[in-house]
Structures are given as structure tokens and as C-alpha cells.
Amino acid sequence: MTKNPKSDTQTLRDAALHYHAYPNPGKLEIRATKPMANGRDLARAYSPGVAEACIEIKSDPADAAKYTSRGNLVAVVTNGTAVLGLGNIGALASKPVMEGKAVLFKKFASIDCFDIEVNESDPEKLADIVCALEPTFGAINLEDIKAPDCFIVEKICRERMNIPVFHDDQHGTAIVVGAAAKNALHVAGKRFEDIKIVSTGGGAAGIACLNMLVKLGVKRENIWLCDLHGLVYEGRTEDMNPHKSAFAQKTDLRTLDQVIHGADLFLGLSGPNVLKPEMVAKMTDRPIIFALANPNPEILPDVAREVSPNAIIATGRSDFPNQVNNVLCFPFIFRGALDVGATEINDAMQIACVEGIAEMARMTTSAEAAAAYQGEQLTFGADYLIPKPFDPRLVGVVSSAVAKAAMESGVAQRPIDDLAAYRAKLNQTVFKSALLMKPVFEAAKAAARRIVFTEGEDERVLRTAQGILEETTETPILIGRPEVIETRCERLGLHIRPGTDFQIVNPENDPRYYDYWTSYHRVMQREGVTPDLAKAIMRTNTTAIGAIMVHRGEADSMICGTFGEYRWHMNYVNQVLGGGTYEPHGALSLVILEDGPLFIGDTHVRIEPTPEQIAQTVIGAARHVRRFGLEPKIALCSQSQFGNTRCDSGARLRAAIEILDETPRDFIYEGEMNIDTALDPELRARIFPNSRLEGEANVLIFAHADAASGVRNILKMRAGGLEVGPILMGMGNRAHIVSPSITARGLLNMAAIAGTPVTHYS
């Protein structure tokens, strides 16, 4: 069926307009970071308390970063004279773009941002306005200002201001181009100092890219710059400025077609169809073509490859590989600059940004990026030169490199003592579980346990195995077909390989098959399992295989459940590993919310637990909460509140508390109560002033799995909670059953939990 381009364009237009208009106009809003609930809050936030902060800043201006948002606040400033490919559309019409830029700052680097659109076409007057904003902001991002005015504005602002001023259209593009070029040359087996570059586009971005490539090692005499009027050559007077003149060649050649011969890299920041197929044919073998004009590049990748099949190509579009996108740069370079109080963004910081972005592409792609770009090949090579913006590791890698460069180059006013800790803190902003999981990972590193994953062919499991080898001392064991696992590792760009980096159990053909089915038969022979049935189960049931491996001592713990129903898996886990002191007595889920962690139990194991089972769950929950470095404050929750309603759940919870009270406990518990009473100390003080629970509860225990599971899912789906778990209690940390919605990061967290010896927290 032939697509209708006009109808596709209209669909995108309608969708984009709807996105900007609903549910509230625009893409930004302002939210308070402090409570404003009563007169006391008002007195501290405004008069008279606010005067104290003013006095401190007057005494020491650096305290503005301590008492105000200035240290994390960026202004995106434009006059709307060169907006995207739309040209000079004016300040007001540029506002959606600037709001979008502000959203990207917040999304990718947690930087607050105000968009400022200014009706001023005179570059010197515009610079005066920007300079006058210095008391408000920690940094300035100049955006969409036409050349050569942008050079003038940036130069004046950088000379007069003591905060970073960064024209992203120039330097952001240059940094991402530099990173892409660095990796493209690596793939092509070439060096900066040896290559010939031909560039089209003498605007701000084009000049900045060429300057960056010179800083990276390209010889200026090997750069040939063309614009609308042909080659920039010595003696040319038409449409020239000092920035173009710096790349003027002494030659009789005049056209792009004449100078393209023997070029290693074509850099296009001009317009559509500028580079012709016959020109590509004149370039060197394995040419590098950066056709970055938007929306239509200088040459389409398919057209270029018809002439040069092994060409390495990047564009500015998202529908082709290697999109050169400034969002890979500006959030992270500003993050690093703000965090050390840099007075400017200098060459050293920009090159550090180049190196960080390039390094990221050569690393194994994160599971988060793979999930955001499903179906795309994300393995370093000709079609993957630069990372994807949604790779959450960018902020840690790039921003810490920028901060380090700022300190080493002497422009950091607030140097960071521990860069490793700073990088870890940055990662915590994108991996919400990182801080809470830190003690668990540290314990797992000291243990070196063997973890068997029963669904070893699953992509999430493969990425987890890679993560285990990178972040822990555990040994992953995967159950699955070796050829399938190896093929998927290669396709996903993972460095790990079966048999070398991890063990494999092949259910179709494993030398231990006899040992496994006979072991299973011995365990289950008095439960109606015949030898033939045991043989069949050990060929087809990977959960049972994993349980037998733990039973035989060939693995220390197992993780299953990435597909299927929880209690189906639990049946086989309990068959093989239950009995004696081991019995599944509850599933505990940690849900990480914006205002802190909340543990929920029992979410899966017992539908309607008895009082004895509830007490058992409470004791287990207290033990597990301490694994995360937290003191348990446990609330037993029901529709009944301290006996005000006669209901089954309330009665069972009260009976459970009586059981708990029979023995002194080293943790706090209270109930039965409503959820809001558990989480609101003031409400609880009014209803039950003699409660032994102080502060907010961090563990909620329910008398029915439906209630526990419902709260868990609501917090995940509507409150943006991140789940760690469910943690299977009662099995001595020998088995855990996850849910099918778990991510690779979630599996890695569960591997760390499984990797901790039970003696560490019991």
C-alpha cells in the first residue's frame, strides 16, 4: 500500500498541536520544592524568615547556590532569528522550541530551566539584556540566534559574565559531531590528523564543528569549506567574515564538485541534495558522510550507499541511524558545569564532553535505551556511532567528565572532592533504586554467589547477566539453548558469551540430565511423579531445573518468573526447595517513590493469611528491610482502625499483633489501621495518641493479597513507583520469583538480593 506523505504530515501536525495544547497549554509549569501548608511555612518561606537568606547571600554571594535555586537554574535565551529550519520567525513564535529545550534539560539532567524570548534584533543590545540576567541564573544557553549575530552575543556575554554562556547551536552541534567523527574514524581505521574534510555550510554550527575538529587533531589546511557561493578561498570577498576566512584555502578550485575528490569526511550543515552521488564516488574508500541538514539531508543514506556501499553515514534525522542530536550534549555539559560552579564552559570541558559521548557508544547499550528504541540495532559500529539520548548512563559518564575537566582547567568555583561519589550520585538521579540498593550490592560483591536464571534466553536476563559481570562478583548461570543465547547476545551488542563468561544449562541436551531427573524423582517420587514424568519435566520445565540445581548445590539461588504465573513457579520452587525450615511465607515488594521507599507485603504468596502467617510475614519483612540499611516501621493495614470496625481482616491483624507481642521484638510494629493513618503521623496522633509507631510507616502489611497487590500496582502505575522485588520470604534467599513486567535493571537488583548470603541479614 502506497503511503500518502501529505496525510502522514497532517497526522504528525495534528498530533504535535494536540500534544502542545492538552491537557494544559505548553510544556512547562512551576512547582514549589518546600511545603506551604501553614503559617509557620509561610513565615519561613517569605516574610520575615526569607530575610535571613538574603542577609547570608549579601555577606557571601556564593551562598546563592545554597539558599536559592540559582545553582541549578539555566536560562534558554533567543530572539527567534534562526529557529530550526523555519528561519527568522520572531521571538514569540520560537517559544514552543525554547519550552521544549527546557523540558529536555529537566528530563535528561534534572536541571531547572526558564525559557526567555526577547524582541531584540540588535546583537549588542541583546547581549546587554542577557548580561543583566546574571543574578538570576547559574548558566545561560543561547539558542536560535542567526549568524553572525550569535558570535557577537556570545563573545560579549562570555567576556562580561562570570557564569557559563553556551551557544548550543554552535558548540552543542560541534560536540556531538566531534563524538560521532571520533567513533566513525575508529570504525574506518583512520586518524584525525590524516583526513581531508570537505564541509558545506558556513553558518555558526558549521564553523563551530570545524573548529572542534581542529581541536581534536584535524589539520586546518586539510579542511575545505564551501557555502552558497562555492569554496571559501583566499581573496574571496563575497559573503565573508572572519570566521569563514579562518578556513580559506589558497587554490584555484572553486566548487564542491572540484574539492570533494579524495575527501575522507563530508560534513554537511547546509541544505537538501547538495551532495550528489557522483561526488560521493570521488571520495576515499569507506567515506564518512555527515549529512546533517534538517529535515532533508544533503544526501539520503540510501542514495549515498548506492555509490559507496561501505560509507559511514550520519544525519540529523531520527528515522536513520546515527542521528546527530544536541540533546546528547547540552543537558550533561551544563550539569557538570553547574555542579562545580564553573565560570565558563571552556575547550577542555567541551572535549571532555566529546570523549564521554564517544565512550558511551562503545559501551554495551543499556537495557533502558534498548527498551526506548525497540527494534533498532544498538551495537557499536558504522550504524551506531553515538549513544541514544535515553541511555540513562549519559549523565553519570558525561557530566562527571565535564566536572573533572572544569576542575583541572581551573574554572570550578566549587570543586568536588570525590568524583566517584559524584558520579554515583548522578546515577542515583536516573536509577531511582541505586541509593537504596547500595548496601545490597556491597554485600553481594563480598559473597560471590552463583545465581541461576531459569528463563535464560530472555533479553532482560541476558542484559542482567552482562550487568552482573560488570557490577558484582556473582556468577550467572543461564538455562536455555546455547545457540539461541549466543545469537541474541550478538544481536543485542552484548560482550558476554556463553561458556566463557557464564555457564549454560541446555534443557535439550545437557550431560547432567540423568543426574537432574533422578534427583527430581527422588524428591517427588512419593508425590505421584514417575521416572518418565521426571524425565519430561527436566526437559521442559526450566523452573524445576533451576530448583534442582539449587537443591544439588550447583547454584546458590535461582530467579524465575519473567513469564508465567507467580504461583505456578512457586509450586515447583516449593516442591524441590521447601520443607524443613524452608517455606514460602510471603512476598515483599519495595516500591521507590519520589518521597522515599515503601515496602508492601504479602503481595503474592498467601491469599488470606492466618494470624500466625501474618506475624511470620511481619518478622520476615523487618529482617529484609534492614538489608537496605533502613529501620523497619511496620503498619498492619485494614479497613478497620484500632478496633472501630468488626471485619475479618481487622480480626486477623489484631490476632497477629497479639502473637507478635508474646515475644520482645527489635523493630516497631502497630495496627490495625488505615493506610492514611499509617503514613500520616499527625492524623495517627489524633486518632490513637498512644501509638507505639512514630513517624511514617515504611512497611505496609495486609491481611489479603488482593489489597497488598492492588496497593503495589497503583503505586507503580499511577504514582510512578519503581518496584524492587517481589522478594520471596521464607526460602533462605535460595529462590525468588519475579513478575513478568520486571525490567533488566529490576532483574539486576534481584540478582544482588539473591547474591547476599542469608547469614548477612538474618
TrEMBL record:
Its EC number is 1.1.1.39. NADP(+) binds at V83, L84, G85, L86, G87, N88, I89, G90. Residues 170-407 form the Malic enzyme NAD-binding domain. Residues 25-158 form the Malic enzyme N-terminal domain. Its cofactor is Mn(2+); Mg(2+). GO terms for molecular function: acyltransferase activity; malate dehydrogenase (decarboxylating) (NAD+) activity; metal ion binding; NAD binding. It is an enzyme of class 1 (oxidoreductase). A divalent metal cation binds at E143, D144, D169, N294. It comes from the Bacteria. The keyword Flavoprotein does not apply. Transmembrane segments: none annotated. In the C-terminal section; belongs to the phosphate acetyltransferase and butyryltransferase family. This is NAD-dependent malic enzyme. The gene is dme.
